[in-house]
Amino acid sequence: MQDQVESCNFVFSPTSIEGVVIIDTAIFGDKRGSFMETYKRSDFSKAGIDAQFVQTNESSSTRGVLRGLHFQINHPQAKLVRVVSGEVFDVCVDLRPGSPTFGAWEGAVLSDENHRQLFIPRGFAHGFYVLSETAKFSYQCDDEYHPNDEGGIRWDDPEIGIEWPLLPSAEVVLSQKDRSHPKLSELHIF
């Protein structure tokens, strides 16, 4: 996808990394509340996103939690990610061998207020950092999760140089597994 694509309910905006797309979603509201479509296969297909989603996951986290950067080695997953409640800074890192943007990252603030989504194609590491008091994060994947196939890279790898909007009053909260991920240059799977 080279140019921005619009439908009645979505605006698909390409990023600096081929295949990564920011999706702005229309919301319709009245005195009863609101309604929005979060996925419509025909609109996504017209925008060049042809993933067939087979699994949906949801997590909840508190301020300062950083999850990632995760990927599947032999069963890579394309993901459509969004925030149901709260606000996060969402990041993906290009791990596609031979890609001209290998090791480059893209990030976007996703929240329940901006209704923004991010499409991440196969071959990327993914993670997010919680900016709000709490956040509920939802993502659809085009392959099932394989627990023996997971990999990760350090969230703070200086060679990648992700510009995380770290909150001065909140410590970065990581799982033990996420603390022990290697740097990109230390991976031996590519």
What does this entry look like structurally?
This protein is mainly beta and 190 residues long. It has a single domain (52-186), classed as Jelly Rolls (Sandwich), CATH 2.60.120.10. It is 5% helix and 41% strand. It is built from 2 helices and 14 strands, in the order E-E-E-E-E-H-E-E-E-E-E-E-E-E-E-H. The chain has helices spanning 41-46, 176-179; strands at residues 5-6, 10-14, 21-25, 28-30, 33-35, 55-62, 66-72, 79-85, 87-94, 105-111, 116-120, 124-130, 134-141, 150-152. The strands form 3 sheets. It has a 7-stranded antiparallel β-sheet with strand order 1-2-3-11-8-13-6. A 5-stranded antiparallel β-sheet has the order 10-9-12-7-14, with no helix packed on it. A two-stranded antiparallel sheet has the order 4-5. Strand 2 and strand 3 form a beta hairpin. The radius of gyration is 16 Å and the shape is globular. The model has no long low-confidence stretch (mean pLDDT 94).
Instruction: Let me know the average pLDDT.
Output: 94
Shape: globular
Strand content: 35-45%
CATH topology: Jelly Rolls
CATH architecture: Sandwich
Which structural class fits the helix and strand makeup?
Answer: mainly beta
CATH C-level class is: Mainly Beta
